[in-house]
């Protein structure tokens, strides 16, 4: 899509993506199940700058970094993206609370942009909520199964 034209005319695009169709996301997933609904809305901010608002809602199956099991991770994000021309100063996104910026493009790859926003929203080390990984915690709390039990056995040799 032509991102500047989309923003200037206040257009809106809605749809749904299957998580399994996002190749850059696959190494972070426990399984390919999940769908992400999206809405992209073009507008101009108070100062007339072209913007895109990207909203995503759904879930995907991530790998817990504690127990290596899968869990449903809810995706609910809203991003504001300032469209900038190459070489144009980017004062708005330089502000701490300012929007992120992307290059204005006559042929913006919407799928790649959505995949990128989703990747940026995922936690660095996803984990079950506290207390859910009890199986892993129970196994580690048993003295005969712990690393120190193994070390104690080596000490006697």
3D structure, described in words:
- The chain has 157 residues and is α+β, with helices and mostly antiparallel strands.
- The chain folds into 2 domains: 3-126, no CATH class; 129-157, no CATH class.
- It is built from 5 helices and 6 strands; from the N terminus they run αβββββαβααα.
- Strands 1, 2, 3, 4, 5 and 6 form a 6-stranded mixed β-sheet that branches.
- Strand 5, helix 2 (91-94) and strand 6 form a beta-alpha-beta unit.
- The longest helix has 12 residues, at 110-121.
- The model has no long low-confidence stretch (mean pLDDT 84).
Helices, strands, pairings?
Layout: H1 3-8, E1 12-18, E2 29-31, E3 35-44, E4 50-63, E5 70-84, H2 91-94, E6 100-103, H3 110-121, H4 134-141, H5 147-155
By oligomeric state, this entry counts as single chain
Q: Return the string of H and E elements.
A: HEEEEEHEHHH
Largest sheet: 6 strands, mixed
Label the overall shape. Answer: elongated
Distance between the termini: 69 Å
Low-confidence stretches: none
Strand portion, in percent? Answer: 25-35%
**Measured on Cα atoms, how large is the radius of gyration?**
22 Å
Overall residue-averaged pLDDT value: 84
Tally of contiguous helical segments: 5
Q: What is the tally of beta strands? A: 6
Helix content: 10-25%
Which structural class matches the secondary elements? alpha+beta
| Structural domains: how many | 2
């Amino acid at each position: 899509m032509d991102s500047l034209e989309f923003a200037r005319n206040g257009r809106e695009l809605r749809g749904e993506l299957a998580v399994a169709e996002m190749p850059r996301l696959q190494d972070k997933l426990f399984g390919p199940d999940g769908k992400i609904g999206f809405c992209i809305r073009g507008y101009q901010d108070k100062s007339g700058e072209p913007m895109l608002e990207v909203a995503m809602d759904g879930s995907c199956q991530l790998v817990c970094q504690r127990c290596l099991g899968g869990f449903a991770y809810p995706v609910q994000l809203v991003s504001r993206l300032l469209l900038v021309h190459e070489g144009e100063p980017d004062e708005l996104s330089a502000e701490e609370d300012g929007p992120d910026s992307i290059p204005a493009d006559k042929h913006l790859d919407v799928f790649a942009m959505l995949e990128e926003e989703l990747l940026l929203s995922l936690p660095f080390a996803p984990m079950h909520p506290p207390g859910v990984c009890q199986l892993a915690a129970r196994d580690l709390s048993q003295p005969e199964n712990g690393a120190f039990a193994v070390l104690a056995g080596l000490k006697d040799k």
